[in-house]
Batch of 2 targets.
Target 1
Amino acid sequence: MVSFGTMVVVILVVLILTQAIKIVKEYERAVIFRIGRLLGAKGPGLFIIIPIIDSLVKIDLRVVTIDVPKQTIITRDNVSVDVDAVIYYRVIKPTDVVTKVENYGMATIMLAQTTLRDIIGQIELDDLLSKREELNVKLQEVLDVATDPWGIKITAVTIRDVSLPETMLRAIAKQAEAERERRSRVILADGEYQASAKMSEAAELYDKVPSTMKLRELQTLAEIAREKNLIVVTTGVGGGEVGTVAGLTRAFTKAEEK
């Protein structure tokens, strides 16, 4: 029979091995402390620690998505806007996120909120609406520099939504309408300018060759005659006498038929 002492030893060995053998997944790292001192990071896979003496903290290396809550921010031109953003980050130095910041997730969120307020407070509303991609890059750069000592890499920042007051929306609509009206007037004025320039050139040509004016007159009469809805009286080409009728109205024709 197995003695009681042997059974106790076996149980102790099993318990020690259970506490000593650790496994971390491919996307995890284990930061190990030995008697309170940082020993390093291990993983992925299987490794052994010394129970009671060693302790570990598991860190996830996958990309984390955080939603920055909507912030009411006053822009440089004194317009209140509500802005929210999405930040993507990942841990690149597991030992730093454990030893240099207490709660790296919460710290990143709080830093993102203050950075968002600071940067948007330095720009005007038009830039916020039209240069969103540039703002995303600037936010990413500022956050990346601030979180680098923590062992965190900011992979992307996206300003998701910008909410404006109702009064400001109406003002922007009026501005857009005024801009379209201005463009239409410029186009009309440019068309008038081009037409007057062409007419001036045509007048110079008619002045140089007077016979072209008569040809133009005959062409106009021919176009009028095709309509068949009025009477045109003109002087004859030979000069002096009343010319022939170029067109008859439909009403006049119907009156003759009756």
Target 2
Amino acid sequence: MRAKGEGAPIVVAPDRDAPLDREVPKSVVAATHEVGAQPVDPVKAAAAVDPGIPLRAGEVLEFTANVAKLNNVATLTLQVAERRSFLGKSAWHLQAFAHTQNPFRMVFVLDDQFDSYSDAGNLASLQYEMRLDERGQKVESVQQMTVTGKEPAPPNASRTRVLPGTRDPLGMMQYLRNVDWMKTPEVRGPVYDGHKLYDVRARLTGTSTAVEVPAGKFVASTIDLQVFDNGVESKDAHFTLYLANNATRTPVLLEAVLPVATARVELVKSK
């Protein structure tokens, strides 16, 4: 899905010093200040999060990915590892693990791990780590986020300059779960996926959608996700997220429309 149907993912291991000079695209900056859009400010972004629904340390969500007419192409596990002190701040350690399954695994072997250390107050990304093992090629990337670009890079990581309040994909998923959608039907903000900075807009489009997945039947809220690159909406992918109308707003289904196929990521088990 990261490759958007263009074959094997193209992975660029960041140079340790280069991110210090990496500029935030002007179009992304401009997009965050459009009239009627939610400003990307770490304090204001935190206000949209319902403080009464904190993340639960130890939560594990297991998903299966179906692509086109192929079922169980891959598995995805999302985990809230712990809440801890990180870089002098209170942070959530979030993890994701992805593995292709047989028979597709005979064609494309993928075993990836992602780690996010996100600010406990607004889930802005502090550090994003990718350990990719795809088709025998292994790449490890550890990137600490910086707003100013002036802090020196630590010896085991690179610095990546982002906008205030930028989240990584794992932090964004958890953030969307904690928005009070009845009070705030639309949110937006920058998301850094380890390669590029995007502007993501999420909008409530339904409040009582019936969803059936391997984990069971749910009544869910429907969240439409639009991704903008340099101010232009991406035509390569469109996402719809379904959050169960339960106390933890469990993500039960993610639908993706890709250039070459459609994909459904369905909840199998939660614990």
